[in-house]
Amino acid sequence: MVDQSSLHEQALLHLDEAAQRLGLDEPAIAYLRIPEETMQVRLTIPMDDGSQRSFAGWRCRYDSTRGPTKGGVRFHPASNLDEVLTLAFWMTFKCALLALPYGGGKGAIRVDPDTMSRTELERLSRAFIKQLFHVVGPDRDIIAPDVNTNATVMGWMTDEYSRIAGHPSPAVATGKPLDQGGSLGREDATGRGGFYLLRRLEKQLGIGPGARVAVQGFGNVGLHMARLLHEAGYRIVAVSDSRGATGNAGGLDIPALIVHKSSSKDVASFAGGEKFDAAGLVAADCDILVPAALESTVHEGNAAAVRAGIIVELANGPLTAQADAILERKGVIILPDILANAGGVSVSWFEWEQNRANVSWPLERIHDQLRTRMEECGLAVFELARQHGISCRSAAYMLALKNIVKV
Asked: What are phi and psi of 176, to 5 degrees?
């Protein structure tokens, strides 16, 4: 059961609450209800069999108050305009919360990449940039990887933009291959940022090594979060992907599971765990639940089944507004997406700065700066929540909104 209000409508509820708590009237925030610029495009490409197919694509620049917009591009068969608007809204607040010099943006193409060849995906990626060349740019709207896109896709898009511009423009995208101006530390940045945040708040949360963790989504983000927590002594008792789930009350062998996933493309068949339905992951017997998949995976129909006392939102919008309310009444502590998964955009900012200065930073510097940024922001959110007796989500939106409207 998924809540019926649109994602964007649900997201605006957080804006309203933050504005009310800050004493801002409607005229002060009205512009944030409407995206600054939204484009829908038709992408028609030749297929390998000689036929032609057309795909819907979108790019939203939600707000540029703080600087050029920044946000990923996803390939997914269920992508739509409401999703893109909402993701761009969340990115606006994420960048503001982390005090990055960016506004929020997002893009998507409605496509199932599993049905496409590599050459077809390259044509589609380049077509996206051709259609949106006037929208994106190093000082206007910077793209990045998202669901089902990666460094290779960013490399194609950067190359196409540079070809049209007539000069190298590596800063138009982040998350690129290293030999095209990519940054060290970008691949695991989102998971690592969430890891740094959780470790810094261990005392406040009453947890530590040995705590039981369930990870929903074993793609790039969830995999690295599980790996880092496992290395730190946490017990990863369950993980899921789009094909199923596996669990082991004593703790899964995460390095072995990563090897298995790379070869078999699923986690459910892992010999070191017990297979179960992926839908049951949210109800896993654990201390910490890490949603690292898609939006709205915890909703009114399954929120009551959550047994974790702490949720770390590494996905964007994994909890609907109704689920959020249910879990808050249960006393669950939620580290919200605009804080918990901000490691990705933080290291993207590092990459953008390196490209603009034509330099490369060592990995140690990137990790140190990421750790500092996530820890300081996490403590600020947690302390504001404690002082006012509000949720961490409410506190995060308050701090972000203050940075946007200059309260």
From this structure: -85, 165
Q: Which domain holds residue 82?
A: 35-180
Question: According to DSSP H, which parts of 166-272 are helical?
Answer: 189-200, 202-205, 220-231, 254-264
Please give the Cα distance from 228 to 144 (Å, whole number).
23
* Maximal CA-CA distance, the chain: 63
User: Contact 173/146 with Cβ under 8 angstroms?
Assistant: no
- The single residue listed with the structure tokens 């261990």 is 202
Contact (Cβ atoms closer than 8 angstroms) between residue 86 and residue 71: no
User: 144-181: per-residue pLDDT in tens?
Assistant: 999 899 999 999 999 999 999 999 999 999 999 999 99
Q: Helices marked H in 103-187 — which ranges?
A: 118-132, 151-165
Domain end position, chosen among 180, 213, 240: 180
330 as an active site residue: the answer is: no
CATH at residue 68 = 3.40.50.10860
Task: Please pick, among 70, 94, 106, 176, the residue that the annotation labels catalytic.
Answer: 106
Position 172 in a domain: yes
Q: Exposure of 233 by Cβ count < 10 A (0-12 exposed, 13-18 middle, 19+ buried)?
A: exposed
Task: Name the DSSP letter for residue 281.
Answer: G
CA 242 to chain centre: 17
pTM for this predicted structure: 0.92
